[in-house]
Amino acid sequence: MDDVGVFETLEQYMPQIVATVVALLILPILKLVSKNLIKRYGAKSGMVQPRIRQIRHVVAVMWNVLFVILIAMIWGVKPQNFVLGLTSAFAFIGVAMFAQWSILSNITAGIMMFFSAPYHVGSRIKIIDKDIPIEATIEMIGTFYTHIRTEEDELIVIPNNLFLQKMVGIKKKRKSTPKSQ
Hints:
Elements: H1 3-12, H2 14-45, H3 49-74, H4 79-97, H5 100-116, E1 124-128, E2 134-141, E3 145-150, E4 155-159, H6 160-165, E5 167-171
Antiparallel strand pairs: 1-2, 1-5, 2-3, 3-4
């Protein structure tokens, strides 16, 4: 290919190249802003650092997915082809990974619990259940599961989507008494 052909091709794709460069410059800024907002919100809400890091990681992955979708659209992937590709990929993942929707619902529930739940790590709670009522302390709220520990030192691991569906009573923290020396 001669030099004139290269420049004509480059000129033909200049809008896509510029839009891609702009997207590449904006992505790290969006990630940094969301990272700082989540960090500030987590600190203000009294969240533990591992939980804050977890949510920041999930949000960063979401930004990356949106970035890939944006780049595909910039370079002319037609929406119907994109939807067809996504549905094919999700169908494959759903069959290959068995109950993929459950995993995604647990991640979504974990994010919802981070931003809007009135309880957090260290909260003393009572799960109001007709069959098996549980009183415990929340030890960890992970991406997929919430760990609670009962008075009998039994560790109970509950998927986030089920934990979010339960009625939960929050017990007041007991006032600690000074230990005698």
